[in-house]
Amino acid sequence: MRTVFGYVLIILLIPASVLTFYYADAEAGKVQNFDDYVEERIIINEVDLPQASRIKDTNGNTYVELHQPNRIVVDGEKVPSFLKELFLQSEDKHFYNHSGIDAAAVMRAFLVNSQSDEIEQGASTITQQVARNIYLTQDRTLARKISEVLYSYQIEKKLEKDDILNLYLNVIYFNHNVYGVEAAAQYYFQKPVNKLSKAQMAFIAAIPNNPSLYDPLKRFDNTKTRQERLIDIMAREEFITADEAEQIKNEKITLNVRNRLDKYPDYSTYVKDEFKDLIAETEGFDQQLINADGDARKAIQEKLNARVAEVLASGVIIHTALDPSMQEKAVSAVNNVLAGSSVQGSAAVIGNQSHDIVALSGGRDFEVTQFNRAYQAYRQPGSTIKPLLDYAPYMETFGAGVNDLISADKYCVGDWCPNNYSGKEYGMVTIKEALTKSHNTSAVRAYMRTGIERSFSYLDKFDFNRVDEDDHVRAASLGGIDPGVTSLEMAGAYTSFIDGTFTKPHAIKRVTDFEGNTLYAWKVEPVRVWSSATAYKMRDMLTNVVKNGTGKKANFATSYIGGKTGTTNNYHDLWFVGLTEGYTAGVWVGKDKYNSKYDNIQYMESYGPQQLIWKRIMR
């Protein structure tokens, strides 16, 4: 009875409200024309529907859908006429004849629904539903209903009927964060809407009338029952024959639900963070954050987050450098080599020509942990820092050659006396031999002769996120940097040995709208770090490490190969960073947390998991 009274009240109040609205400006001494009055107060802006953004790999294939919401805008010409007619006959039979409000439909719905246990017909026109879904809210209040009427009136004045219907087909809700007929077709059947059978069209058309009641995943039978009622309506109105109606109703409906697409979470996790950084840099948020702290900084962060959400909701395509084949190899290598152990790992792979990030492994069983060690785990680099901080700066500064001699004997600065790994002294050795065997005392000598500040002047060009002036100490020459570096940062730094320049690696190549217009792109320029001569010498020495030194387990036949191992104090971390002709990769292996010197992975050192992972990825 309350429902009946509600409909009667709405029928009576809407005309009264319109009249009240008409006379509302009496204080001006005269009554404006109703159209002019509504025109001033109800602004119908150009509609830009939020839709799902996508992330694509280097081949142009989508591997992530960012549902904010899950909508795929489709041109009305691509929507089958049968599906359009289903909505017209069930939701707004006189759509092409009314001006936004259908009083007869309100009364008809009132009569039909008062005799049923559920809502068989809606009182709102398609235009009203468009107004509600785009400009208003879903609140069930008299004020919202009156606004809906006025907005519908304006929409009908501004837009053609076909355009209103097209908007409706793209805004209606199909449950499970799915909006619009195209997204519904792809979500429930994994087909474009124009490839659905008539039975499937009627099935999805059954949902929006009451998305909870007709939820196909939870109340399939309810949805099927309503689907059959819609088909009966189409037969009654002679859009199909009775025989065809029976055939459509008898067609088996098999859902093929499309789960949210995220094929490579190790990589996409990084892309989402980089996307935020790209917007921050492009729109100036990064500079604002540098100069702010406390509540001011928090406010800027909130604005940045809102801006990121706004851009994603507008529907963009994030084009990335992801190489699916290399990505699968990186993830597989970390998972398989470390399978069954309590040890974690990470890997980052960069293309030598593009300097783009082509693959990332965030760790063993990454989908479970959701902590991406490739760029979020900062660890001391051990001896992998020696090429970057000790030997390359030494050769760059003094023009030393790979066969120049350097002492591998005991070396002390005050009471600091680092030892070689073996504990032995080796006398005068070539620089190549010193790096190949990873003699600590030789590395320290090169570092100290170059000078701490000068050595760091080269390292600073790599933009290590957490390396600062506190790290400008003697122990840094052997990897004593706290909290450390990531495998992605190390891989990026080693690309400088290709031609002597460093270009900060990125996953995102560009961000476009759906028409292909570029909205965002990184502005990167290579930075000269080493001379070509120094880069050549370092590649030569890194090759010797792999073929004759500590990196033998990483060796395989290829046109070029070179790299460096690293082990930190108490065997908390195992590293290998190196390059081939086509790629540069950094691999870290260790435990996420360690509480004492005894919580180490020394037992894995002889196995060389970091080298085996690198080899599996790069071979």
TrEMBL record:
Keywords tagged on the record: Carboxypeptidase, Cell membrane, Cell shape, Cell wall biogenesis/degradation, Glycosyltransferase, Hydrolase, Membrane, Multifunctional enzyme, Peptidoglycan synthesis, Protease, Transferase
One GO process term, biological-process aspect: peptidoglycan biosynthetic process
Principal subcellular localisation of the protein: membrane
Catalytic activity, reaction form: Preferential cleavage: (Ac)2-L-Lys-D-Ala-|-D-Ala. Also transpeptidation of peptidyl-alanyl moieties that are N-acyl substituents of D-alanine; [GlcNAc-(1->4)-Mur2Ac(oyl-L-Ala-gamma-D-Glu-L-Lys-D-Ala-D-Ala)](n)-di-trans,octa-cis-undecaprenyl diphosphate + beta-D-GlcNAc-(1->4)-Mur2Ac(oyl-L-Ala-gamma-D-Glu-L-Lys-D-Ala-D-Ala)-di-trans,octa-cis-undecaprenyl diphosphate = [GlcNAc-(1->4)-Mur2Ac(oyl-L-Ala-gamma-D-Glu-L-Lys-D-Ala-D-Ala)](n+1)-di-trans,octa-cis-undecaprenyl diphosphate + di-trans,octa-cis-undecaprenyl diphosphate + H(+)
Domain Glycosyl transferase family: 63-234
UniProt key word Hydrolase: yes
GO cellular component, one term: plasma membrane
Stretches of the chain forming a coiled coil according to its record: none
One of the record's GO molecular function terms: penicillin binding
Localization, UniProt: Cell membrane
Residue ranges constituting the Penicillin-binding protein transpeptidase domain according to the UniProt record: 345-584
Matching InterPro entries: Beta-lactam/transpept-like, Glyco_trans_51, Glycosyltr_51/Transpeptidase, Lysozyme-like_dom_sf, PBP_transglycosylase, PCN-bd_Tpept
Record-stated family: In the C-terminal section; belongs to the transpeptidase family. In the N-terminal section; belongs to the glycosyltransferase 51 family.
Name of this protein: Penicillin-binding protein
